[in-house]
Amino acid sequence: MKSTIKDVAKKANVSIATVSFVINDSKPISEETKNRVLKAIKELNYHPSKSAISLVSGKTGNIGFILTDDHFLRTEPFYTTIFLGTEFEARSEGYYILLTSIRPDFSEEDPLPRFILNKSVDGIIIAGKIPHTLIERISAYKLPTVFIDYIPPTNNYPLVLIDNIQGALLATNHLINLRHTNIAFIGGDIGHPSLSHRLYGYKQALENANIPVKNNLIVVDAKYPDRQHGFNSAKKLFSKNKNVTAVFACNDAMAIGVLHYLNDNGYKVPQDVSLVGFDDVEADIMLHPPLTTIRVPKIEMGVEALKLIVNSVKSKKSLPKKVLVPVELIVRESTSLCKTK
Amino acid sequence: MKSTIKDVAKKANVSIATVSFVINDSKPISEETKNRVLKAIKELNYHPSKSAISLVSGKTGNIGFILTDDHFLRTEPFYTTIFLGTEFEARSEGYYILLTSIRPDFSEEDPLPRFILNKSVDGIIIAGKIPHTLIERISAYKLPTVFIDYIPPTNNYPLVLIDNIQGALLATNHLINLRHTNIAFIGGDIGHPSLSHRLYGYKQALENANIPVKNNLIVVDAKYPDRQHGFNSAKKLFSKNKNVTAVFACNDAMAIGVLHYLNDNGYKVPQDVSLVGFDDVEADIMLHPPLTTIRVPKIEMGVEALKLIVNSVKSKKSLPKKVLVPVELIVRESTSLCKTK
DNA sequence: ACAAACTCGTTAAACGTTTAACCAAAATTT
DNA sequence: AAATTTTGGTTAAACGTTTAACGAGTTTGT
Fold it and tell me: Which among A83, B113, B138, B152 is most buried, taking Cβ atoms within 10 Å?
């Protein structure tokens, strides 16, 4: 039933080598025979066996994709969207993605992802912050690796990063342009470079505008930047500072938490408080008002990561290229002109 | 660097066949040689080449997992959690999962997932409702297939289903036990068997309790059961029916939409209206009050699906077994005794 | 006109496993 | 003690590709 290269060769009246050359056009073949072969391939509905190719080439044609359980399952489809971008690009490149998640508290004893142990991938994409012990143990396998949205401690990997500083500048400047001066920053998980860069950009924007940076307007002690922590941080912020007129949250998840707090406590958004998020996860269409935020091109990030990894797989010399994807301010209805009374 | 079976054989002073027999224990080998081989394997850090095994066995060791984009990206981590269960079980069974998503409006011209065309999977798991044209085209490839949470038109596949009727009975009976009689049902996408079964169970529970089923309390015209549609359906329901004291929403997403509507419009939950969801997606920890719902064992569903598919892959005769996973009522704070005035 | 260089192919080895067929030695049966 | 079975192993073919090495015709250069 299943046809092989041999069947094609027989049908086209050529050797199997010729068929191979036609498929990969790795050697010049006359138009005429080429067509005969192509025709035979079509008629037999022939598809090369991946295992045979793998065996002889030493490549698997697979790329491993690693993220933590919580990133995979979190409400805001951030990393999953990135994954989709990777999968999408993998299709055109002829690769398969092996997705696996690990526990965020991955420890020394936990086993590495199978595809690494069994060498069933040619390269690895790691999305988001993952435990350093895992990074070290993976690096022993000398597999091409690229990181998405995270800067690993030993910084000689290809990276796909968000232009976080630029994004934070855009967000904060937007608020400054709306005449706000008491602008708070709500963040979390400061160990993550993305989030600390956003804080940095926030400070930078204030300084550029000659607005003093006040530490009591910066709440960054949340362990994880999700809605619940956004809510809690907002509570902490507003119970001590009544004069805050604008909040820049380090991501949409926390911004949504802030919004809930504000709604619950009689603050009107944007009349009383303007609010800007980051990521544009389009999480909750129910949100009112719709959130002004910084759009991150998630699909493109996945695409870029796959391109990078394919590159280092193919050309053994992997120069640790960094791709900084651009961001964009999306103004919706959660921000408005500051009413200085 | 990479060691092969040959290296192991040499080191252990046996033939490669013996090594193979030890690995798969497919033939009796004396304890002594077995230990020698095992030792050599460990020392060389030998891992069998998957491609070589694939080539000779004709099996790929991969399972394809298909769902629609919107299911993959939706805010409530329902199908993604199921996927995680599948991935988890695949690890212990030694399989890899190839995840791919398709557009919900998959049409005749769209290409099938690559892993089907290239025969790089031994079987397929399909999660959630997918277009019938896709099902038909896949079936031509005669690959073992199991469906999760969907009943395909040609019903001779192994299936992993939720005990939806039981769940709907539990939910509705819970409300009836709380003395509610004006119990509404909010649903959507009635073409999905899961959701129509939930409606069925709702009606059944009312009939069992001798409560008349009123059509104006049943809103099922939503196209897709998400938050936004839940919100809209609630609006439709409550603007016409002021005396509704309880709502059973066909899933948590719609329930959350209903809750938003109620909160926005001055209804207190559960004091004025009791609300029950379905799925227990733990989507929004911010929700107040926390939602009474029907827990669906999502991880277990993924595990069961993988077991089924491995079964039909291994034993060519795949009897179309159906697995009905049990559900459980989780009482939280969105339901309370009806205050009949 | 003859060597040199292309062009378009073919042959056969190699990749790393599994497994059918075979076999020697030891154990068991008669 | 001879015949038979069991035990524990080996040899070699097969799986479906890629690719190095080779070669027969044809073209080009002088």
Answer: A83
